[in-house]
């Protein structure tokens, strides 16, 4: 029995000696001259790259390091020292998303890491005039012909929505933009941030269930915080009122969507400068001639409450103190521009109850 134990002990000792000879050389990396460089936005792309290079000692070229952030040390990839310099591609230069990036190098114990923060610009601006293609991508297939919004479907594309909102936040309109480009920016921003507000609180029965959804300043754009109401009333409305006098100032009402069933339907794509006027006219015709929103007959019309709430937008007249008959005449005169049937000029006007249930 004793000889058997001696043999086992001798075998274990030989095994330990063998392991010691095969142990890797302990890491003792020395990193100097960290030199991250931003590679700007090529060919007008909204994406940019960062090239990372540094000097190293005390580590084999075949050893690995990672580039990432504290929550995900491998966020931007794993590389060998022999790969230097390395390039991190496809970073979004939205002028809003702050770039955090660190180099993680294994230490001697092979468990912890040495951490080297990479000092690069906090934000990078690759955006000229904002493209709204990503908003179209979010909406595609998620808005029905009737205007019903598939919020779970949009939630599945939340990464695209977040990127789009960040792009809006970091790139407010500039003086070089055309009026149509500025209108599209603010209309799309209103709609996208409204959808985001619903998703943040989904599921819900109505936007009215939320605490002051239109008055709360919760939309970061540039250096300012906006509310939905301030965007609509103090930016979009003046943009339309100050534009071409031959243009219908009230058209924006059919473009901004308040996430309610009775609200003019959300367009199933982004508004663009090239198609803005056509889309607005089409939305006006669609809203006025759809029984969900307005019910028209030759001698009587039952119209949306929008016409009562925003009557001054539908006329050049001063509506202060105006009696019911004169208000009705203004509404009839306006809707006949878009009505599919011939509404009599003296048609009776009534107002439909506004349905605030969610437009899903």
Question: How does this structure look, described?
Answer:
The protein is an alpha+beta fold. Among the domains are: 30-117, Immunoglobulin-like, CATH 2.60.40; 133-290, no CATH class. The protein has 9 helices and 14 strands. The protein has helices spanning 2-22, 133-139, 151-155, 158-170, 179-200, 228-241, 276-288, 306-309, 324-335, and strands at residues 30-32, 37-39, 47-52, 55-57, 64-68, 78-80, 86-92, 102-106, 113-117, 219-221, 224-226, 295-296, 300-303, 348-351. It has a 4-stranded antiparallel β-sheet with strand order 6-5-8-9, with no helix packed on it. A 3-stranded antiparallel β-sheet has the order 2-3-7, with no helix packed on it. Strand 10 and strand 11 form a beta hairpin. The longest helix has 22 residues, at 179-200. It is elongated. It starts with a helix and ends in a 9-residue tail after the last strand.
Number of strands: 14
Q: Give the percentage of residues in beta strands.
A: 15-25%
Oligomer: single chain
Distance between the termini: 81 Å
- In angstroms, what is the radius of gyration? 31 Å
SSE series: HEEEEEEEEEHHHHEEHHEEHHE
Q: What structural category characterises the helix and strand content?
A: alpha+beta
Overall pLDDT score: 89
Strand line-up of the largest beta sheet = 6-5-8-9
Residues in helices, as a percent range: 25-40%
Give the low-pLDDT segments: 1-26
Count of separate DSSP helical elements: 9
Largest sheet, if any?
4 strands, antiparallel
Shape: elongated
């Amino acid at each position: 029995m004793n000889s058997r134990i001696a043999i086992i002990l001798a075998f274990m000792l030989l095994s330990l000696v063998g392991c010691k000879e095969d142990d890797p050389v302990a890491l003792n990396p020395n990193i100097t001259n960290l030199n991250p460089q931003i590679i700007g936005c090529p060919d007008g792309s909204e994406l940019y790259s960062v090239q990372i290079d540094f000097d190293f000692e005390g580590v084999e070229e075949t050893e690995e390091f990672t580039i990432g952030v504290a929550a995900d040390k491998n966020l931007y990839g794993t590389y060998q020292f022999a790969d230097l310099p390395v390039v991190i591609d496809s970073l979004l230069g939205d002028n809003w998303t702050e770039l955090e990036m660190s180099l993680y190098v294994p230490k001697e114990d092979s468990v912890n890491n040495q951490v080297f923060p990479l000092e690069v610009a906090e934000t990078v601006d690759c955006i000229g005039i904002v493209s709204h293609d990503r908003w179209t991508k979010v909406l595609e297939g998620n808005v029905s012909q009737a205007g019903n919004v598939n919020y779970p479907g949009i939630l599945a594309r939340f990464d695209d929505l977040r990127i789009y909102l960040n792009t809006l936040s970091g790139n407010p309109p500039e003086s070089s933009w055309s009026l149509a480009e500025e209108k599209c920016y603010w209309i799309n921003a209103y709609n996208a941030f409204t959808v985001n507000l619903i998703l943040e609180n989904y599921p819900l029965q109505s936007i009215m269930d939320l605490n002051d959804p239109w008055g709360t300043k919760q939309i970061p754009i540039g250096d300012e915080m906006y509310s939905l109401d301030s965007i609509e009333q103090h930016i979009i409305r003046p943009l339309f009122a100050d534009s071409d006098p031959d243009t219908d100032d009230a058209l924006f009402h059919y473009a901004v969507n308040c996430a309610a069933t009775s609200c003019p339907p959300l367009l199933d794509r982004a508004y663009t400068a090239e198609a803005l006027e056509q889309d607005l006219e089409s939305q006006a015709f669609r809203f006025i001639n759809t029984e969900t929103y307005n019910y028209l007959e030759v001698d009587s019309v039952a119209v949306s409450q929008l016409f009562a709430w925003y009557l001054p937008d539908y006329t050049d007249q001063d509506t202060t103190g105006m009696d019911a008959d004169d208000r009705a005449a203004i509404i009839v005169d306006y809707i006949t521009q878009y009505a599919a049937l011939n509404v009599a000029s003296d048609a009776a006007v009534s107002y439909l109850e506004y349905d605030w249930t969610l437009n899903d």
